[in-house]
Specification:
Strand content: 5-15%
Number of strands: 2
Order of helices and strands: HHHEEH
Helix content: 40-55%
Distance between the termini: 29 Å
Oligomer: single chain
CATH architecture: Orthogonal Bundle
Amino acid sequence: MINNDTLKAKLGCYNINHKIKSKQLELQFDCSGSVIRDGVRALRNNKVPIGSIDAEGNDGYFTPRNYAEYEPTINNLLSRAYSLIATAKNAAKAFDVILQEELPFT
């Protein structure tokens, strides 16, 4: 388990022009990528903006200064969420089940 305050402080040292890769964080915190992702998810769920992709598609974690820097990350998260919903709907069709169109988490 990673301390979220420590992760937040570490990521606060990086910006859109100077990102840190997950692999570097894994080495520094001696943990797996899934632990890093869980920590980032927890921070985001606590309204801490953690960017992971810029407008050019370059990845790496950073602390955005404004929404324009954060928007590519938000769009990427939404795209992945919609893709998972589509997968769940198609999987349910294997048993002739049609899932509701509305999102259960909105």
